[in-house]
């Protein structure tokens, strides 16, 4: 199965747009001081904060897809994700109504939460897929190790959200896109996502083989090395 860079960018752009579009200055101010009492404010806050960082990743080219260029961007993304993980963990013990009521007083359905989560996943994994597509074999091992750090935090965040929002997994799973699962499989991080109960045997772990016909062997060696040392 082949993903064109264009469709990945379209996924990222539409994910970013769907979150960017309805934000008014008032909502922005609310999000900026995330009340963090509900799942909606946490997920929209992380999505809004992460969007410009993730967008930078989509402009990476094979010339600047290096550890030096990526480290500050990845570092910021990791910071945002770590904050969100502790915020979600802080929701433990709150009532379902508290968790699911937005700062505007709207009671979300579990499907609404699933859509917020999927938007965030598409945004992050779409950009990581772009990076994986442009990385050269000489930089692959180090870059992949960096990407793994992000994806491991995404796994933690996702697990934390699933822990507090009962019934979310069954609704979420069918919505999770092929790009998300393929990047996880390609990075060798399936075990970090075992809580998803995905049938990984049907997921392509070689999304990038078409684009990387010449460097694929060294890339998969790099992945094996990066995973072994992770
Ligand atoms: C990488 O290079 C591209 C093309 O020159 C540029 O548009 C992009 O901003 C660069 N990214 C970073 C993070 O330096």
Automatic annotation (TrEMBL):
Name of the protein in its database record: Unplaced genomic scaffold GYMLUscaffold_14, whole genome shotgun sequence
Alphabetical UniProt keywords: Membrane, Signal, Transmembrane, Transmembrane helix
Signal peptide region: 1-20
Organism domain of life: Eukaryota
Membrane-spanning parts: 168-190
Lineage: Eukaryota, Fungi, Dikarya, Basidiomycota, Agaricomycotina
Source organism: Collybiopsis luxurians FD-317 M1
């Amino acid at each position: 199965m082949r993903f064109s860079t264009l469709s990945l960018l379209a996924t990222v752009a539409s994910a970013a747009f769907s979150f960017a579009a309805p934000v008014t200055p008032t909502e922005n101010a609310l999000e900026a001081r995330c009340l963090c009492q509900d799942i909606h404010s946490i997920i929209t806050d992380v999505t809004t904060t992460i969007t410009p960082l993730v967008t930078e990743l989509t402009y990476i080219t094979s010339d600047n897809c290096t550890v030096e260029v990526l480290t500050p961007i990845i570092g910021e993304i990791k910071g945002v994700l770590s904050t969100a993980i502790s915020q979600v963990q802080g929701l433990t013990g709150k009532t379902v109504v508290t968790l699911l009521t937005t700062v505007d007083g709207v009671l979300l359905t579990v499907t609404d939460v699933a859509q917020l989560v999927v938007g965030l996943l598409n945004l992050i994994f779409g950009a990581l897929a772009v990076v994986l597509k442009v990385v050269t074999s000489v930089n692959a091992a180090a870059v992949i190790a960096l990407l793994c750090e992000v994806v491991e935090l995404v796994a933690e965040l996702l697990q934390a959200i699933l822990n507090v929002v009962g019934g979310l997994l069954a609704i979420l799973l069918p919505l999770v896109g092929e790009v998300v699962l393929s990047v996880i499989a390609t990075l060798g991080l399936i075990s970090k996502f075992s809580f998803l109960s995905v049938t990984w045997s049907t997921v392509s772990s070689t999304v990038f083989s078409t684009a990387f016909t010449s460097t694929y062997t060294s890339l998969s060696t790099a992945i094996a090395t990066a995973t072994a040392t992770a």
